[in-house]
Amino acid sequence: MARARSSPADSGPPAAAGVLIPAAATALCVAVAVAISPSAARLPVALCGVVATIAVAAVAAESARRGRLIRELRRRYSQHDAGLRALLADQEAMNVRLAESVLPAAIDRLRQGESVDEALRALGFRAGGVHSAQSAHASMLRSVLSAVKAEEDLRDSAQRAFVNIARRVQAIVHQQFLDLREMEEHHGADPRVFGDLLHLDHATALIGRLADSIAVLGGSRPGRQWQQNVPLFSVLRGAMSRITDYQRVELHSVLEVAVVGPAVEPLIHALAELLDNATRYSPPHTRVHLTAIEVQSGVAVEIEDGGVGLSDEARVRAERVLSHVSSGLDLTDLGETPRLGLSVVGRLAQANGFQVSLRPSAYAGVRAVLVIPRDLVTTVPAPTMSIPGAGVVSAGLNPQLVKPVRTQYPEQSAYEVNGNGLPQRHRRTPPAPFVNGSAARATAPPAPT
């Protein structure tokens, strides 16, 4: 704290007293000495006393002057010290603000598409500022944002390249599905040829899932788009068809509901990734149990395996991967052996409103639960949809394990376009009876868009 500045009037009387008192005391002593001295010695004593008095007064005056100078220097030092402390406090506050609010806000603006100059102007930083510290902070912030911008541009370019590559593979896979569909229709009477075609259909589905995963991590969506609602049973079977060890998956009771068209492909892909993790990280002789039950918030799909389970640290790390997926694909995090499953599930869950959790399983492994929101579930449509790659799974299903479970979801209204081009509302047809076994391959999947 700076000391109060003293005025000359306040310091005048003490300084004068400091000069007069020693001189007066010396003069008094000289007068006493002259009075008691003999007559012949009074003059020399008086002269010596006068000289001594003058000398004492001069010393006292110089001492008082130096005292005033020291006090002034101390006052100036105190003010300078207080100013430096205030400046350091301001700079510390600026550093904290820069690290905690300005820099994150600037990076968010960069990710929203603003340039470095626009972000700096919006945050109140301009080059050549009056305050030297603020100018230095602006220069440092510009350098950091330029580096972040270059890194973001590089990552965006890599993501676009990955998505373009994935789209090419998806187009090839889609054409392969169409060719296999035609071959199955031509050679369906021969069981050996038909079985080989189903095997190729399954292998093509695995390639398509990998291409879809790359596209999803690049910020895009899975390749296929479903215009009609698909039964949940067909969705689960389609997810099983996109993993290698589909024979190990036991499909238990399934609700007799359907999934709305826009959510079908993301749900199939997310469940396929969870099933792949369950089969990949559990002993090959164990079973993976797949169940769909109704819950308060929608439909919960449970996947339980008999693997080694997850430690608390591994579970926290996996849930972090599921939740922190908004930044997209980062090539530096892939490593030499990329593990994309949970990242893909996290992005799909974030984009479609799925809730994914990992818990210990009753079989000492992992239980993954994916909750489908109620607004993405509807009644079973009358036509049975066909999912590419699901035919190979049909032969492995046990009709005694898969049981339909009716639910009380209300029927939803559908819309058709009349002759005037306007939507006309009508009631959806009642749910079709549940049928086990392979689905009819009546409708080909739409082309990737």
Automatic annotation (TrEMBL):
Residues 417-449 are annotated as: Disordered. One of its GO terms (cellular component) is plasma membrane. It is an enzyme of class 2 (transferase). One of its GO terms (molecular function) is protein histidine kinase activity. One of its GO terms (biological process) is phosphorelay signal transduction system. Pfam families: HATPase_c. Its EC number is 2.7.13.3. Residues 439-449 have a biased composition (Low complexity). Keywords: Kinase, Membrane, Phosphoprotein, Transferase, Transmembrane, Transmembrane helix. It catalyses: ATP + protein L-histidine = ADP + protein N-phospho-L-histidine. Residues 262-376 form the Histidine kinase/HSP90-like ATPase domain. The chain crosses the membrane at residues 12-37, 43-61. This is histidine kinase. It comes from Actinocrinis puniceicyclus.
